[in-house]
C-alpha cells in the first residue's frame, strides 16, 4: 500500500506477430524480443522513449456520453482537422497493447472517470502504477486527470482511478481540457 513512486521494477509481455518483454528497473525502459527458434529474448529496443507527441488517441468512445465535458472536448479536439490533426483513433481494449503501440509510435491512452465509474475503472496498484512507472521511465506522463499517478497514496487494495497516459505533450493537453471542462 505504497505510492507508485516507491516501485523498483515494472514490465509487461506483449504477444502478437512477435513476443516482447518490456521492462524497467528505474533506469530507462528496454524491450526484448523472443527468438522462438532459440527460446531466448534479445535486446531489440534499447532505451525506449515515448515521442514527445503523437498522432494516436486510444479511448473507448462507446462510453462518450458518460465522460466529463473536458474529456468530450478533448476527443473533439483530437478529431479536428487542424495543424497535425485529426489524430487516428486506435483502441484495442487492452491496456498493455494500447500502451505498447503508443510507446513505439507516440500517442495517448485514456480511461477517464465517467458517470458510470466516478472513481475510474482501472486499478491503481496493479494496472496504473506499473504502466505509469514504465511511461515515466520512457519520458512519458501518467495522470488521473489532475495528479501524477505515481504520487497517489493507495487507500484500498483494489482502488480504482482514472488513467491518462502517454506522450507528454498529448497528456498535458488532455489534462488542460479536463481541468477547464470539469
Report on this structure.
The chain is of the alpha+beta class. It folds into two domains: 42 residues, no CATH class; 126 residues, D-Maltodextrin-Binding Protein, domain 2 (3-Layer(aba) Sandwich). 27% of the residues lie in helices and 25% in strands. It contains four helices and eleven strands. The strands form three sheets. Strands 6-5-7-11-9 form a five-stranded mixed β-sheet, sandwiched between helices. A four-stranded antiparallel β-sheet has the order 1-2-3-4, covered by helices on one side.
Give the topology, please.
Blueprint lengths: L9 E6 L3 E6 L4 E7 L4 E6 L10 E3 L10 H11 L8 E2 L5 H11 L1 E5 L10 E2 H14 L3 E3 L16 E2 L1 E4 L1 H14 L1
Parallel strand pairs: 5-6, 5-7
Antiparallel strand pairs: 1-2, 2-3, 3-4, 7-11, 8-10, 9-11
Indicate the overall shape: globular
Helix content: 25-40%
Order of helices and strands: EEEEEHEHEEHEEEH
Percent strand equals 25-35%
Briefly note the CATH topology name of the largest domain: D-Maltodextrin-Binding Protein, domain 2
Spatial separation of the terminal alpha carbons: 29 Å
In the CATH scheme, the class of the largest domain would be Alpha Beta
| Rg over C-alpha atoms, rounded to the nearest angstrom | 16 Å
Task: Tell me about the largest β-sheet.
Answer: 5 strands, mixed
**CATH architectural designation of the largest domain:** 3-Layer(aba) Sandwich
Please report the number of helical segments: 4
- Low-confidence parts: none
How many individual β-strands?
Answer: 11
| Main sheet strand line-up | 6-5-7-11-9
Total discrete domains? 2
Helices and strands: which structural class?
alpha+beta
Overall pLDDT metric? 96
Amino acid at each position: 500500500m505504497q505510492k507508485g513512486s516507491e516501485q523498483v521494477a515494472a514490465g509487461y509481455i506483449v504477444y502478437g506477430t512477435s513476443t516482447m518483454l518490456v521492462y524497467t528497473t528505474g533506469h530507462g525502459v528496454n524491450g526484448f524480443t523472443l527468438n522462438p527458434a532459440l527460446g531466448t529474448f534479445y535486446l531489440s529496443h534499447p532505451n525506449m522513449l515515448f515521442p514527445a507527441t503523437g498522432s494516436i488517441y486510444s479511448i473507448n468512445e462507446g462510453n462518450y456520453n458518460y465522460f466529463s465535458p473536458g474529456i468530450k472536448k478533448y476527443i473533439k479536439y483530437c478529431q479536428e482537422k487542424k495543424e497535425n490533426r485529426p489524430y487516428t483513433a486506435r483502441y484495442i481494449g487492452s491496456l498493455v497493447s494500447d500502451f505498447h503501440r503508443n510507446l513505439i509510435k507516440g500517442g495517448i491512452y485514456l480511461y477517464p472517470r465517467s458517470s458510470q465509474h466516478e472513481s475510474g475503472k482501472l486499478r491503481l496498484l496493479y494496472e496504473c502504477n506499473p504502466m505509469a512507472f514504465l511511461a515515466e521511465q520512457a519520458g512519458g506522463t501518467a495522470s488521473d486527470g489532475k495528479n501524477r499517478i505515481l504520487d497517489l497514496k493507495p487507500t484500498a487494495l483494489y482502488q480504482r482511478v482514472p488513467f491518462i497516459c502517454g506522450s507528454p505533450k498529448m497528456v498535458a493537453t488532455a489534462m488542460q481540457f479536463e481541468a477547464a471542462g470539469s
